[in-house]
Amino acid sequence: MRIAYLSIGGHIHTERWLSHFVERGHDVHLMTVQPSPIAGVKVYDIRTGIPWKPLHYAVALRKVRRILAAIEPDLLHTHFLTGYGYWGAFSGFHPFIMTVWGDDVYLTPHTSFMKGRLARHVLRSADLVTGDSEDILEHAVRMGASRDACRVVQWGVDLANFRPDAPSDVRERLGIPSDAPVVISIRSFTQAYYNIDVIVRAIPRVLEARPTTHFIIAGNEGDDSELRALACGLGIDERAHFVGRIPHGELPAYLVISDAFLTVPSVDATPVSLLEAMACGSPPVVSSLASALEWVEDGTTGLVVAPRDQEALENAILRLIDSGELRESIAAAAAAKVQTDADHGAHMARMEELCEELVRNWRR
Fold it and tell me: What is the pTM of this model?
């Protein structure tokens, strides 16, 4: 197939997804306003340099239409409902697949009447809508997507690399003793709803009870300077390791040494980092969001707390630090869950089947 994508360039989700289809021998093209090279992918820069958004979107749409006319793809697959989804829907191209990510469904369409109306138009225009949880697709249906056109497709985990026995030298690199408990957060710093500040504020009580504990605070996007300042003000900077962006290939080395993995946002779809942590046997503490609860059963495959409930988060961390038996049982159950249900290759193969079926039906 010749597949045209509209998606966020320079993002690990986009790179992993497109790379699978390249490896499968498909002709892959990417239109983006964040151009970044991906091996085997023809990348088109649709930036306009126009600051006024309505005109920017209109001019970029003309670019999208010209590119589609030139390459004549078998299908158009758009990632991210707002922004890229607008171009996908208004291009008029079919078959048209829409893959939703997270806040593009949960938040942005509800910030204004116009954004809500545009989101509904995109979802109604799509011949197929995919998302990484039943919950996010239910929200998409409420906004206009056809329930019959919705399919769950995970970003998935590379189980060959994310595994409980992955090698690690992270303790040596960060100067963490071999017997010290380790707690990790690797969520983005870009949005307040990830609640990294709650994690930082929970550290003093954990250290008061278990002073040998070390925290690793990482994030693939955004500036952590305010969080570093908060940690310094709380007097915990010696036990809080701010390591910035961890290259994706190095993540297993961090996850396998962790006694607790924290992801406690107020809004989210299914975070890939959660599934990767589970695959590595890092017991997760998650907030009680519907998407997370599709993976984490409290006390079995992780621990569940309410968003921004600092005391509950502190107690959950201490439970995992204090009970090796609980950690081991959760680690084993979590890894088994991901191995069964979240293999990246299996989900991409399913996506490939859906694409081929859609193209066949459209040609008929």
Answer: 0.91
Instruction: Evaluate whether residue 165 is within a structural domain.
Output: no
Is the model's pLDDT at 152 over the cut of 90?
yes
Chain segment 90-106, per-residue pLDDT in tens: 999 999 999 999 999 99
SS3 string, the chain, reads CEEEEECCCCCHHHHHHHHHHHHCCCEEEEEECCCCCCCCEEEEECCCCCCCHHHHHHHHHHHHHHHHHHHCCCEEEEECCCCHHHHHHHCCCCCEEEECCCHHHHCHHHCCHHHHHHHHHHHHHCCEEEECCHHHHHHHHHCCCCHHHEEECCCCECCCCCCCCCCCCHHHHHCCCCCCCEEEECCCCCCHHHCHHHHHHHHHHHHHHCCCCEEEEECCCCCCHHHHHHHHHCCCCCCEEEEECCCHHHHHHHHCCCCEEEECCCCCCCCHHHHHHHHCCCCEEEECCHHHHCCCCECCCEEEECCCCHHHHHHHHHHHHHCHHHHHHHHHHHHHHHHHHCEHHHHHHHHHHHHHHHHHHHHC
- Answer yes or no: do 126 and 183 share one domain: no
- Answer yes or no: do 71 and 53 share one domain: yes
Confidence of residue 282 (pLDDT cuts 50, 70, 90): very high
